[in-house]
Amino acid sequence: MGNCLKSPTSDDISLLHESQSDRASYGDGAEPDQEPPPPYQEQPYVPVYHPTPSQARLASQLTEEEQVRIAQRIGLIHHLPKGVYDASRDGSEKKIRECVICMMDFVYGDPIRFLPCMHIYHMDCIDDWLMRSFTCPSCMEPVDAALLSSYETN
Q: Is the pTM of this model over 0.85?
């Protein structure tokens, strides 16, 4: 019986070398004659705001009126008292020990913010929440009304 394997011809060898050199020039599967992508460039961070709870837009897309309302909201948020979580100082076993927004336990040293209704949250969690809705996530008490009334009594 004869040998079933065909010995490579010079045409087969030249095709093999050509396909290997083509693959090497393509790199990671890029098309020939295509320039490699530019190096990664970090895009500048553009904040996203919520002019209404269900609507998110880039800061550059907000109207002037929406920008004013968001600036006022940020100002009110920064007037809310803040602190650092310390369970030993609170002393009560019945105290809530978890942020109801992120559902994570408070840890000693966590930055927290107090709402006028006396509920506490992680500062980052409640600040983000208040940018969308100005009510307490636990009792739904309007934060701005309580905050503004505290200014009027002083």
A: no
Tens-digit pLDDT profile for residues 64-76:
888 888 888 888 8
Task: Name the DSSP class of 105.
Answer: B
For residues 119 and 138, the answer to whether their CB atoms sit within 8 Å is yes
Q: What residue spans of the chain are helical by DSSP H?
A: 10-26, 64-79, 87-90, 123-132, 143-153
Tokens describing residue 44: 């500048």
Query: Could you tell me the residue ranges of all domains in the chain?
Result: 48-153
Task: Kindly state the DSSP code that residue 47 receives in the 8-state scheme.
Answer: -
**Tens-place pLDDT, residues 23-48:** 444 455 555 567 776 676 776 776 77
Question: For residue 60, how many C-alpha atoms fall within 13 Å in the half-sphere facing its CB?
Answer: 3
Mapping DSSP to helix (H, G, I), strand (E, B) and coil, where does residue 9 land? coil
What is the CATH code of the structural domain delimited by 48-153?
3.30.40.10
Structural element, H or E, at residue 131: helix 123-132
